[in-house]
């Protein structure tokens, strides 16, 4: 019988389906040392973001030679040593389509929060304050949204923001612009120079992508949204730009450390914060489960 270990849980419907199909499914989190022992007994490992599948765990799995598949229930595979696993005959899959719409909608939500001070006003209202005069905002319609990264999520954001009347420009690593693309492909410098809002939609990078140098090229009073990966913008550069007034606001769903350890970040009034909930919708989780189950049945059916 094929044995599957889901260390960060699995969507209920997907779990029920796998069990109906005769798979032996265990849902239990293990700390790294224990996981290295447990993984030897399973054919497939399903993780989300909490479990890190690094070289020592892969090496442990190779001792038995049983593990054939690692699935990341999410967009990226940053928490898995993917190349090393594949070099040693273990396939690595993710679920890139499942949460794209949910992350895109959260991005739009943060755009509204920044433009209309929703994040600030919500807090002060709960403190019994009526600071109406402090929260004069701006409309999104007519503003330019620059997207750094134009994959699945970036394109959905572009479509939704365009429907709100925003002008869209983007830059991407490949430099490729699809034929008949309705959105404007520009250089990074032009994007920074012309955008009222800049939103990041790219995988984890070895180095920050937007630093003080890039922020200096942006419009005075612009905004940044990061629902992609923590560490793409250094905390100190965010804080400096906000405190100087160079940026009017920043929205974050992801952080270099989670939960964030930098108190200046999570208490700053000009930062709209959410706790890495981009994929946390009922619909996205159902789609994640469906994709996970599909990967497993494709491998072992």
List the helices and strands and how they pair.
Elements: E1 3-6, H1 12-20, E2 24-27, H2 32-38, E3 44-47, H3 55-64, E4 69-72, H4 82-87, E5 91-94, H5 100-116, H6 118-126, E6 144-148, H7 152-163, E7 167-171, E8 184-185, H8 188-194, E9 197-200, H9 212-216, E10 222-226, H10 235-244, E11 247-252, H11 263-266, E12 271-273, H12 282-300
Parallel strand pairs: 1-2, 1-3, 3-4, 4-5, 6-7, 6-9, 7-8, 9-10, 10-11, 11-12
Helix pairs in contact: 1-12, 2-3, 5-7
Word description of this protein:
The chain has helices at 12-20, 32-38, 55-64, 82-87, 100-116, 118-126, 152-163, 188-194, 212-216, 235-244, 263-266, 282-300, and strands spanning 3-6, 24-27, 44-47, 69-72, 91-94, 144-148, 167-171, 184-185, 197-200, 222-226, 247-252, 271-273. With 301 residues, it is of the alpha/beta class. The chain has 2 domains: 3-96 and 281-300, Rossmann fold (3-Layer(aba) Sandwich); 100-273, 3-Layer(aba) Sandwich (Rossmann fold). The strands form 2 sheets. Strands 8-7-6-9-10-11-12 form a 7-stranded parallel beta sheet, sandwiched between helices. It has a 5-stranded parallel beta sheet with strand order 2-1-3-4-5. α3 links the parallel β3 and β4. α5 (100-116) packs across α7. The radius of gyration is 21 Å and the shape is elongated. It starts with a strand and ends with a helix. The model has no long low-confidence stretch (mean pLDDT 96).
